[in-house]
Amino acid sequence: MTSFFGSVFWLLVTLGVLVTFHEFGHYWVARRCGVKVLRFSVGFGNAIWKRIGRDGTEYQIAAIPLGGYVKMLDAREGEVDPALRDQEFTSKPVWKRIAIVAAGPGFNLIFTLAAFWLMFMLGRPDVAPIVTAAPHSIAAEAGIQPGDRIISIDDHAVATWSDSLDTLAYALLGRVPLPVTVRGNDGRSRQLVLPLNELPPGQSVDKYMDKLGLDLNPVPPIVATVLPGKPAAEGGMRGGDRIVSVNGEPVADYVQFQQLVPKLAATSPQLHLVVDRGGTKLPLTITARHESLDGQPVSWVIGVQGMPREPAIIQYGPWRAMGAALQTTWDGTTRTFNMIGQMLSGKASTNNLSGVIGIAQVANASASMGLPWFLNFLAMVSLSLAILNLLPIPVLDGGHLLYYVVELIKGSPVSEQVMIVGQYIGLALLFTLMGLAFFNDIHRTFLS
Known about the structure:
There is one protein chain. The protein has 448 residues and is an alpha+beta fold. It has three domains: 2-33 and 92-123 and 368-447, no CATH class; 125-217 and 309-314, PDZ domain (Pdz3 Domain); 223-308, Pdz3 Domain (Roll). Helix content is 47%, strand content 23%. The protein contains twelve helices and 18 strands. The strands form six sheets. Strands 4, 5, 6, 7, 8 and 9 form a six-stranded antiparallel β-sheet that branches. It has a four-stranded antiparallel β-sheet with strand order 12-11-13-14. Helix 1 packs across helix 2 and helix 2 runs antiparallel to helix 11. It is elongated, with a radius of gyration of 28 Å. The mean pLDDT is 86.
């Protein structure tokens, strides 16, 4: 239940911040273009709070938090007081109407840049892009070895696992061979190609990642601490020892070692280990004990602790942070448009769409990771809102901009009948998109 309420809370925070910023863009530019704003609403439906400002605008928070709107004085919605006709929306030049409509997505882009800039200033904690590959997986067959560090993907340098994951996720949508440069434990770089074209069509990125078989940042099988008085200490193990094998089974990473100890000790507590100590292979015999260690459930233990994952943090000064924010925004924009194009062409599955439930889950997860990660999440959602609203779909900002471009070309406004038909088409498309995203959320959350 904590996760549920946390997801709901951070979803409301996310929508509240981004919707307010988007609608404030419309409001601010409308006021400066001389248009009277009747209502500024965050949310739809009945108001749960409202007040009238000194400018005569009604400000409200409504019960349904999935959006918002700015209601302007508009002759298409009823009679306009002759004294206020110079403040009416449709009486304004078309370039002013374009500016008012474009201001919402524009302010989302401004928010995206600001959030990324602050994130890079604060520093986003991450882990190094060190990987291993599951046996018989696509990554393993491509040549990924335990402890490989990803240097670049598709000629784009990566410094953290998150950088790698973002690039991989978009490449998986297209299912084309992906060049990767890695550096092994021996310090040598290797050029590999992940044959993503072998993946079956029509699946989500999550399923593709499972088939790819990359394990993020495995912990090396190195003992950091040997607890005094425990079996490992009694058997001669020391901090810094790299575990090579247990009972003849080779060990690739510390997680595998943690799984092998109880599995093998259940058959015979006496374990035969080989460790690498300063380049010399040493055999050790350690007798595991069936007990609780550090308050954990009773299990077969030998009394050692592994090394932490290698940390990586991206943090810049103000000027470089702005450059990184601009580049990240540009990369996110091009990737989003590429994804839309791939979905429309059928190359990428619509299973990758996420709705309110998915956004709520990611909001809660990113908030639990700290402010820089939540800022990263807000920036990406804000960018998605900007791009979505600019699509030429009636009822969205992009649809209105399309009408005004047509008006500029033909010299007169689009007919009311065309706008009504467009409204119905736009609503149908929008509800279809929302329904598909909601279905995907339900399937991922409850049926997968």
